[in-house]
Specification:
Elements lengths: L1 H21 L10 H36 L1
């Protein structure tokens, strides 16, 4: 009886491991606090760059409109 029980246990254990490998978690990957801070700084730099380019293009449009008038 013990031998049969042991065989069944090992087969169940293998099956459980295979199912666990196939199952993927929906939980987002952990990002450390330092990495989050770096990402925030990069995003802020990108926003500042976009803001400065939009200000420059707006200023150029205003000067060209004044020259034409």
């Amino acid at each position: 009886m013990n031998r049969k029980k042991k065989i069944i246990q090992t087969l169940k254990k293998r099956e459980k491991k295979q199912k666990a490998k196939l199952h993927t978690s929906n939980k987002p990957k952990y990002v450390s606090k330092a990495d989050r801070e770096k990402l925030a700084l990069e995003a802020q730099a990108v926003e500042e760059a976009q803001a400065s380019t939009s200000e420059n293009s707006g200023a150029e449009e205003n000067t060209s409109a004044q020259e034409n008038a």
